[in-house]
Amino acid sequence: MIPALEELIEFLRLFPGIGEKSARRMAFYLLKLSPDKLDTFAESVLAVKSITKCPRCGMFTQEDLCEYCRSSHRERSTICVVEEVQDVQAIEQTGIYKGLYHILGGHISPVDGIFLPDLNISSLFERIDASVREVIVATNPTLEGEATANYLIEQLRSFPVKITRLATGLPIGGDLSILSPITVRNSLQNRKDQ
Question: Between 20 and 30 A from 27 (CA), which of 2, 50, 70, 166?
Answer without folding.
Answer: 50
